[in-house]
Structures are given as C-alpha cells and as structure tokens.
Amino acid sequence: xxxxxxxxxxxxxxxxxxxxxxxxxxxxxxxxxxxxxxxxxxxxxxxxxxxxxxxxxxxxxxxxxxxxxxxxxxxxxxxxxxxxxxxxxxxxxxxxxxxxxxxxxxxxxxxxxxxxxxxxxxxxxxxxxxxxxxxxxxxxxxxxxxxxxxxxxxxxxxxxxxxxxxxxxxxxxxxxx
Length: 177
What we know:
This is Large ribosomal subunit protein bL9. This protein is an alpha+beta fold and 177 residues long. It has helices at residues 45-52, 63-96, 117-126, 170-176, and strands spanning 2-3, 6-7, 23-27, 40-43, 58-60, 98-103, 110-115, 136-137, 142-144, 146-155, 158-168.
C-alpha cells in the first residue's frame, strides 16, 4: 500500500473477517465466557490481535484448521474428559483440606491487614497443592479471625470448597500469656 509515493508497512497482517464483521478464530484452549477448545468463534479484531492470538489461546480459522479439528475432535474430547476427571479428583482432595493462616489481629479479632488469595495459595503450596491466585474466589478480603469456606475455581465446570482458618500469630499468643 502506498500513500504519496511512500510504502506504508502494516504492523500486523489483516485478519479475515467473519460473517458478522468480527474475526473468526479457532480456539486452541478453553476461554472462559467465550468457548471451548475446538470451537470456532467470532470476536472483535482488538481482542483477537491483542489477547487471544499472542497468548496462544486461538488461531485463525482456516479451512485446513477446521478440517484438522474435525478429524481430531474425538481425541480432543477424550483429552478434555481426562482433564475434567483430574480436576474433579483435585476438587475432592481440596474439599478434604483445611488450611491455617496466621495473621496479626487485635483483641476483638480484627486483623491489622487482610488475608487474600496470595496468602491462601502460599498456604496451599505448603500443603502440596499448586494453584494460581486467580483460582481462589473470595467475596472480599478476610479481615477477621475465624473459619471461612473459600471457593476454588479449577475449571469452568469444576469448583471446590476449601476450609480456611485465620488464627492469631503464635508470637502474639505467647505475649498475652
């Protein structure tokens, strides 16, 4: 393309348009609120160019890719069922767990700070579970001592409940006695 005798380079390739004016993509991974692996979706150009394509979550839906997905759909389904089974097993294990987090608190039981997903994932890592902070779903930060039931999001179809005890720090107990 040229303008006034100069060639203008596009920083990106033009993406093929879908029937509704968006970009048609084939999902490589499950994307929350969009679709499952192997689905063909139509999204806005910016979402495709800035998020889905660079993160490797989707690819352009060419005829070749569509044929490959159809050919391997049964294998993909078996892999997805295996993942779901492992997530359900992990959810059962988490449901049996109870973790304890120590925090500084005043005499009424109010924490000086708060306990958030970062502290919960650190305690889970000590217990042998590896989860990301965004998998812990809290209604708000935990600001008081006590027992809480926390939702753990493992997959779009699998959630687990985890018991979290927020207790005063051991050094604080020794100073009171």
